[in-house]
Amino acid sequence: MLVVILLILFSELTIIFCSEFNKNNKIELLNLLYNKQKQDPSIKCLININYADTIQNKYINTPYDTNFTYGKYIDFFVSISDTNKYIVLPLNEFRNTFNPQKIVIGLRHDIDLDLNKAYQLSIVENNIGVRSSYFVLHAANYYLAKPNRMSTHNKKIIFPLMVMQDKYNHEIGWHNDLITLQLIYKIDPINYLYQELDWLRKNGLLIYGTSSHGSKYCCTYKFLNLYFWKDFKNYNNPAFNYYDKVIVNGESICFKKALLKDFNLDYEAYFLSFNKYYSDASFINGQRWHIGKLNLNMLKPGDRIQILMHPCYYYAKGSNLSEITSFNVFSQKKSIINSVNSTITIKVPYGTNLSSLHANFIVSKKANAWIGNRKQVSGLEPINFSQPVVLKIVAENGLSSKKWTIIVTQESKPLVQ
Fold this sequence. Notes:
The radius of gyration is 24 Å and the shape is elongated. By secondary structure, it is of the alpha/beta class. Helices cover 20% and strands 30% of the residues. The chain contains eight helices and 26 strands. The chain has helices at 23-39, 70-79, 91-94, 115-127, 158-167, 178-185, 189-202, 216-221, and strands at residues 3-9, 12-18, 45-49, 56-57, 62-63, 86-89, 103-111, 133-137, 171-176, 207-212, 245-248, 251-254, 267-268, 276-279, 283-284, 287-288, 304-308, 324-329, 334-338, 343-348, 357-363, 368-371, 374-376, 382-383, 389-394, 401-410. Strands 6, 7, 8, 9, 10, 13, 14 and 17 form an eight-stranded parallel beta sheet that branches. Strands 19-20-26-25-22-23 form a six-stranded mixed beta sheet, with no helix packed on it. It has a three-stranded mixed beta sheet with strand order 1-2-3, with no helix packed on it. It folds into three domains: 3-49; 56-313, Alpha-Beta Barrel (TIM Barrel), CATH 3.20.20.370; 324-410, Immunoglobulin-like (Sandwich). The model is unreliable at 1-62 (pLDDT under 50). Strand 15 and strand 16 (287-288) form a beta hairpin.
């Protein structure tokens, strides 16, 4: 059941979602907030989404796999945060980025089941300065205005997708189940794609690329949805060897096909240039592959890697606290922590070099401190405080975060006696 607590404080509207909730209600509420903001720009909306740790995974009917917590997801990005070695990009940028001295990673998410879970993961990634690509599935229930009405879209998905694109700087793409649409639902896939891309783009979504969905019908009739594209007519896959037509209920149906350029699309995810591919759709010894299984020692400079992860498997676990309880720099005269305003002001002696100061700090239990996409460890590396520094504290659960502004100034120049 959705529990909504409205707290009006200093003209800010805080919406806190607790326990399990209905995803359609949440998307509806997001749109309500969006309309309220348009009517009254003074209203600010802060959305915190907290799941109980014991929620059952409705997609696989077992308790959540603890390898798929947001915390462990963040741990992976900590391990590849060295920008001298790794580049992590959305696919639209990945496709044109080649660097023989670095490992280039294209990060992809197919939103097969739950837009709300994708929205949460986009927040987690934004918290640690990561950008990726999210592909919207037109056959999913969240996309449809009514279940199994494949030709009618749900207008309420636009706002959360726009937030993911414009606020969190992720790419939004098209998850293609078009041959299924033709075979099973008797809908012209070419006209449908023109219509839907036009609708999404007119609402502000920049759709550059597509990724092909593996529906259950692909296994039944031995086709892949990427066969919709004429661009890849020489592609062969013996396990899915019906490239042009299949027989459905005794009827031979030829696939309708088109070119990417016909729809102003620039790429298909499976046909980008990469030499390694990892996906949590695969299983190893009966266990779903997860990001912790990626052996970084097997990667080398020049590698181009595509990683596909499905947001529906990931969840929040742990504390939502993101406080700084202590913050000190060498030789400081005083340090004032203001938790209400999320500021820390520090005075140091006149003549102190502000551009290279080591900071020792304590944050909430199991929370992490970040500047951009680089994790900060207390006392480890010098920080340039010649300008105010924004330190983001990301809570243990990965979803909650708080931006702290650190201001370090020198004391006045002493008077000459």
